[in-house]
Amino acid sequence: MKTLIVYYSFExxxxxxxxxxxxxxxxxxxxxxxVKDYPRGKASKYVFGGAAASLSAAxxxxxxxxxxxxxxxxxxxxxxxAGRTAPPLNTFLKSHNxxxxxxxxxxxxxxxxxxxxxxxxxxxxxxxxxRASFIDPASHREAxxxxxxxxxxxxxxx
Length: 158
Known about the structure:
Elements: E1 3-7, H1 13-25, E2 28-31, H2 42-54, E3 73-81, E4 84-85, H3 87-95, E5 103-109, H4 115-125, E6 131-135, H5 141-156
Parallel strand pairs: 1-2, 1-3, 3-5, 5-6
Antiparallel strand pairs: 3-4
Helix pairs in contact: 1-5
């Protein structure tokens, strides 16, 4: 099964999970990078990032190549910002119609709910094959590895 993991990572948590999954699924990865990055300050990242997510912003991304039709499975990964996907993933979803694709998703958060993010993704792509939530994966590596193994086993089932 040919798999592509498309993700945005602000602080490295989502990248860490994408790499875990890529190893377990022998998947290709595509990290989305906005042309203009978000502020890194403790408060400003919440203010600017949360506002952008709440407004469903879709920032310009650095150039990338992606042909979803070449993959049997697309996995979308995002940190949770104001209960939603990070804006770079919004840009990707506006640029690619994944309704005919098999799509799964994972979300990384500091402890809040991921339900709203998954509901929005399901609406955008027409449903999710599977989903997984990772709570602060860079700090909780053992739990992240266990959840990645569980998620991968679900995705590998025929």
